[in-house]
Design goal:
Blueprint lengths: L2 H9 L5 E5 L3 H10 L6 H12 L8 E6 L1 H4 L10 H7 L3 E5 L4 E3 L7 E3 L5 H10 L4 E8 L8 H20 L3 E8 L7 H21 L8 E2 L16 H15 L6 E4 L6 H11 L7 E6 L1 H11 L6 H18 L5
Parallel strand pairs: 1-2, 1-10, 2-3, 3-6, 6-7, 7-8, 8-9, 9-10
Antiparallel strand pairs: 4-5
Helix pairs in contact: 7-8, 8-9, 9-10, 10-11, 10-12, 11-12
This protein binds 1,3-dihydroxyacetonephosphate.
Length: about 325
């Protein structure tokens, strides 16, 4: 098996999932503001070191997605670089490589993700520093007349070009087309837009000769918009999500690792568990940011003495999602 195939298989190994800890400095600062903690180079390093050094994290977590700053930091109080520390624990280090979602056109509410300039050089450096996979997040917004076909196509092309560059640099690309869950739309609209998006993404991946056995897909689940009056049940979310993915994701793809997208921790876990009670063509797991970290962030509260409780809360959440990834919660 090629390195790409074996890394992709490890990322979605049964009973494990991915910890997304790649918040940009701006996003991390917003999260810290929510708990009244100043966001600095050191406070971000302290918080993330607490997460990564949680004892036994590797039983539930196959890989961690890092942001450039974290990728170049040492574990708090040590000389161990964070990617090398993760590797020594048997956890794959990953790196966010897009440079953000920007307006598709002047004044547009739609976004296009950028970051292709200089990408091959950056990927080569990250690989040499220990990265084994990468992430690029495309954002599809729902609303009046949105998403446009132009938005879907531009984002699908960006994802495909990024994925090919990653594979050429021996990194497994996480392909993340996120259809946002904000809005009043129904679950059926979420289904239709996700279907349009996945169709375009796989069309572009094939056109760019991306090896589908060497990627991990990171999609949204199919949910009712957060402000929709009728909220679909856990059963319906699982059934519609599976139907949409089965129709639109080739079985050559080894794994699907969902984003949580602002769902409550509990619902993100319950949905994953319900989905995994069914037979699927791929390993289906989590690549959660907020749904894994929310509790740990509150427990930490910016204080060094809260390390143990921060780690306990993270491990409890990681364990629940590990069980959900085999439908055995
Ligand atoms: P959430 O689980 O908080 O949506 O974050 C996952 C992620 O990596 C978004 O790109």
């Amino acid at each position: 098996m090629s390195e790409l195939h074996s890394v992709a298989a490890r990322m979605v190994e049964k009973g494990k999932g991915i910890l997304a800890a790649d918040e940009s400095t701006g996003t991390c600062t917003k999260r810290f503001e929510g708990i009244g903690v100043e966001s600095t180079f050191e406070s971000r390093r302290n918080y993330r070191s607490n997460l990564f050094t949680a004892p036994g994290l590797e039983s539930y977590i196959s890989g961690v997605i890092l942001y450039d700053e974290t990728f170049r930091q040492n574990i708090f109080g040590t000389d161990n670089s964070i990617p090398q520390y993760l590797q020594s624990k048997g956890v794959l280090p990953g790196i966010k490589v897009d440079t953000g979602a920007h307006p598709l056109k002047d004044g547009s509410d739609e976004k296009n993700t950028i970051g292709l300039d200089g990408l091959p050089e950056r990927l080569g450096e990250y690989y040499a520093l220990g990265a084994r996979f990468a992430k690029w997040r495309a954002v599809i917004t729902l609303g009046d007349g949105m998403p446009s076909n132009d938005c879907i196509l531009a984002n699908a092309e960006g994802l495909a070009k990024y994925a090919l560059s990653c594979q050429q640099a021996s990194l497994v690309p996480i392909v993340e087309p996120e259809v946002l869950m904000d809005g009043t739309h129904t679950i059926d609209t979420s289904f239709d837009v996700t279907e349009r998006t996945l169709t375009a993404v796989f069309d572009q991946l094939e056109k760019h000769n991306v090896d589908l056995r060497g990627i991990v897909l990171k999609p949204n689940m199919i949910l009712s918009g957060y402000d929709c009056k009728n909220q679909a049940s856990v059963d319906e979310v699982a059934q519609k999500t599976l139907e949409c993915l089965t129709k639109n994701v080739p079985s050559r793809v080894p794994g699907i690792a969902f984003l949580s997208g602002g769902q409550s921790d509990e619902l993100a876990t319950l949905h994953l568990n319900e989905i995994n009670k069914h037979d699927t063509n791929w390993n289906v797991t989590f690549s959660y940011g907020r749904a894994l970290q929310q509790g740990a962030l509150k427990a930490w509260a910016g204080k060094l003495e809260n390390t143990k409780i921060t780690q306990e809360v993270l491990l409890s959440s990681a364990k629940s999602n590990s069980l959900a990834s085999t439908g055995s919660l």
